[in-house]
Write a structure and sequence with these properties.
This protein is of the alpha+beta class. About 15% of the residues lie in helices and about 15% in strands.
Length: about 375
């Protein structure tokens, strides 16, 4: 099974070797987990990039960041989990009705809403999400992807204490909590993952997030493979892809990654960052499918948007602070090895080649050994009931 396939298992027995014995784990069902593939960003203590508008990119800790932007499919999973009643307007009707929307559709009535995404859009980035929406998505990941109303156990607390924050002033006052796991990356975390050359604790940065100082082209290779140094942006009147999609699928420019292995940090859509720009705006970076190559540059100025805005050109990716993992097997970082972590591992089971969400032992694969480690720590951790 290739990485990223998600499988639901119900009434299945899983066997793992542990302490010389065979352990049978029987469970009735495991909810299909939303898998966020991440890459590691090391070289802690690297030197900042001297941007004319302020030094940027120095980070003194290791972290992980989303390999791809959060997709419409992943955001649909989130909506179905917590937005049967959409208390805090996580869904925007333009997602479906706009020609530039990400084609997530809502049906039903308040209290029983359900959501679906058109298949051709599921692996393209979600847009029309506010900063508050992105923070609530991060909280949902932090809390183990629970199902239920939008409250302190699902979206309103976790990595960020939101508790109903909706106005620009309220959202601008929100800060990352000390025990945060899944987060919106700061501008420094975002910039380092995009532009730093991954060559030690240096101050060496590429101008473009495609691992080069040379201006990228906006071509989508057909047929593959991508020759490298391509991104989704506009040249004159020429989009990388035009209607109806506009935005490319995650990793479509497969040989145009950043030095740390991220994709689409240049072009496709702007991405929210955690960092304030001024008193109320939250920073956005990365350029869009509808803008020129200059917005992809490391040297571009800081820009921001009001955090309550749902913009056609803005989406997000998430980061993970792995040092917060309480125990091996706490894959969602919520402080307890439990059914949610098991669901993540089983959804990723069989992944090979690195970057696997369930790779607990660090060997590049999600396999029987990882399952054994998780089971050995099951129901352990400081936040377990």
């Amino acid at each position: 099974m290739k990485h990223g396939d998600r499988i639901g298992r119900s009434g299945r027995a899983w066997w793992a070797g542990h302490s010389g014995a065979m352990i049978c784990v029987w469970f009735v069902s495991v909810a299909t987990a939303t898998t966020i593939e991440t890459v590691s960003v090391g070289n802690r203590g690297n030197t900042a990039y001297p941007n004319p508008w302020g030094d940027i990119g120095a980070v003194d800790y290791d972290y992980n960041i989303g390999k791809y932007e959060v997709t419409a499919g992943q955001y649909t999973d989130f909506l179905n989990a917590v937005a049967a009643t959409d208390t805090y307007a996580l869904y925007n009707t333009s997602m479906w009705t706009s020609g530039f929307g990400c084609k997530i559709q809502r049906v039903g009535d308040e209290g029983s809403y359900t959501y679906s995404v058109a298949p051709d859009w599921a692996n393209r980035p979600v847009n029309l999400v506010s900063w508050g929406d992105a923070a609530r998505f991060a909280n949902w990941l932090h809390n183990g992807q629970p199902t239920g109303p939008q409250d302190l156990t699902t979206t309103e607390d976790g990595s960020y204490f939101l508790n109903g924050a909706m106005t620009n002033a309220e959202l601008a006052a929100v800060v990352r909590k000390p025990d945060a796991t899944w987060v919106i990356p700061t501008v420094h975390e975002w910039f380092k993952a995009a532009h730093h050359k991954n060559d030690g604790v240096t101050g060496n940065y590429f101008e473009f997030p495609t691992s080069t100082d040379d201006m990228p082209s906006n071509l989508l290779s057909d047929p593959d493979p991508d020759p490298g140094n391509n991104a989704t942006f506009k040249v004159g009147n020429q989009w990388t892809i035009g209607p109806p999609y506009y935005r490319t699928e995650a990793g479509a420019h497969e040989n145009s990654a950043s030095p740390y292995g991220t994709f689409d940090q240049g072009g496709n859509i702007y991405e929210w960052t955690e960092t304030l720009v001024g008193s109320e705006n939250r920073g956005v970076r990365g350029g869009t499918f509808n803008d020129t190559v200059d917005l992809l540059r490391a040297s571009r100025p800081f820009v921001g948007s009001l955090p309550d805005q749902n913009n056609l050109l803005v989406g997000f990716r998430v980061a993970l602070i792995p040092g917060k993992m309480a125990l091996p097997g706490d894959l969602n970082g919520d402080g307890c090895v439990n059914q949610s972590d098991l669901g993540i591992l089983l959804s990723d089971f069989g992944c090979t080649g690195g970057g696997c969400a369930g790779d607990i032992d660090g060997d590049g694969d999600t396999d029987q050994a990882d399952l054994g480690i998780l089971l050995s720590n099951f129901n352990q951790g400081p936040n377990c009931p």
